[in-house]
Amino acid sequence: MQDEIQQRVDRIRRSRSELENHVIDEFFAGHISRREFVRAGSVVGLSLPLLSFIAACGGNAPSGGTSSTSSTNVKKGGKITVGLISPAHAVDPFKVGDEGGLVVLFQMGEYLAFSDANLKLQPRLAESWSANSDGSVWTFKIRQNVTFNDGTPMTAEDVAATVNLHADPANGSNALSALKGVLTKGAAKATDASTVQFTLDAPNGNFPYLVSSDNYNLIILPKTYNGNFEKGDKAFIGTGPWKVTSFQTGAGMTTVRNPSYWDKANTPALDAVDWKFIAEEQPRVLALQGNSVQVVNHFSASGGQALFTDQNINVIDVKAAAHRQVHMRTDMEPFTDKRVRQAVALSLSRPDLVQGLLNGKAQIANDSPFLKLYPSTDTSVAQRTQNLDKAKQLLAAAGKTNFAVTLSTWKDYEIPDYAQLIQSSLKKIGGTITLNITDSSTYYGDAVFGKSPWLDSVMGITDYGHRGVPNVFLGAPLVSTGTWNSAHFKNPQYDQLVKQYVAAVDLQTQKKLAGQIENLLLDETPIIFAYNYDTLGGVRSNIANVEITGYGQLDLRKTGIKA
Predict the structure, then answer these.
(1) Maximum Cα–Cα distance for the chain, whole Å?
(2) Which fold has domain 64-109+240-318+534-563?
(3) Contact 28, 58 (CB under 8 A)
(4) Is 255 left (phi over 0), alpha (psi -120 to 50) or beta?
(5) What is the chain's Cα-based Rg?
(6) What's the predicted TM-score (pTM) here?
(7) How confident is the model at residue 67, as a pLDDT?
(8) Helices 18-28 & 48-56, crossing angle to 10 degrees?
(9) Which family does the record claim for this protein (predicted)?
(10) Disulfide engineering: 247 pairs with which of 146, 206, 253, 463, CB 3.0-4.6 Å?
């Protein structure tokens, strides 16, 4: 029996690429765990059946967070209501950068791949993908017989056109947070009716994540897309399971089952979903408890504490890389001296933040994007802990014993409480913080330098949603030319290390480079990463099969009223 299994593995390997075989080698050599193998294999293009078979030859099954309510038989038809944080601005695939907007996009739009709760990639509009030996050219096979919700066929040319539009800086796409420095306009080419080839600016071992649901702006659009997403006869165009029949800015929308959805095994059970846009967390929680909405995609552990003991509510808990970044502008006083930034980080008690703010529904982070749930994180790097005496010594050495600063952020979830805790922590070491807490639209502004308190403030707290790999967190907020570099951090050594990390295709090299990056960021401390929190969602007990991603995206394809 063992010989037969080995022969089958050998046959599989003969048809695999050099990159795919390298991942298999790492697994059988014991260099990576089964969980790490499944994740890495999905990235380089190994199919899930092949991954499952090979992984079964080498160990125990990987475990992950609970991303959905348990699978249950549901009635066909009916309608439910979802409570969602209001989109901050117009829903535009190129401009969306907030939770409300990205959840809306996820209903009628689809991606080449879906990044699931276990950090694996599942094929969606791409059936498969593969890379050349160094990860500089990626080839995606595009699913056939898919139509947009206006009835027009989706083609490989649509895929290439969509990615090239987002890669063009002239269009100001938020997707550049992931694509900048990775590929340029024209790098995506439809080589035939079912194939798109991406020629990258440099090797990238995690590229498939950058065109997956992780890069939430990249829903596939028709090649004729004219830039008007919310209005006109092509409004809310996409290939997803739902069609928008009404949309009222600031109030809500209604989606109905898309009868031409390509994935017949996952055609929605519900006839329709009403969406209520509710700006603040407490009204959303109360609406769920009062049954005026049946699903809330995201609540904080502190703001939704009552939901954990409500017998009418099922809580979905997804381990995620979602976190808050506390930026300190390295080009403005009092933070031009890294000793001041280090002192601020040393003033915080991270265990108290995790327990007090988030009721334990979070993990302590170490002031870098390398969170504990990422396989590439070097966990041997020492954890930063609270040290008030050292913080005071650093401030004295920097000549900033009584510094004052304004901290800007926005009002929702635990963020205002976090701001107050930072304020009280800094008071213990002699710092004075004035809080400037606004709504999300004001804080994020136009999301460009010069027109955004997020990107322009001396100090701020920003919400970052989950990603399956740390690439975006390493790039957009921290590299010298990053589109979200609110700390205005410029460090050539860091930029070079990130370039090397991104190019690495094997986990061992990634871990080695991760350790160097972690230590550099602990020294420089442009941003405080104090914790990453679980994504929590709430569902009424009579509703089943709701899936929530680490990002808070809602997959309602199998959702329905319990039979």
Answers:
(1) 73
(2) D-Maltodextrin-Binding Protein; domain 2 (3.40.190)
(3) yes
(4) beta
(5) 23
(6) 0.82
(7) 61
(8) 30
(9) Belongs to the bacterial solute-binding protein 5 family.
(10) 253
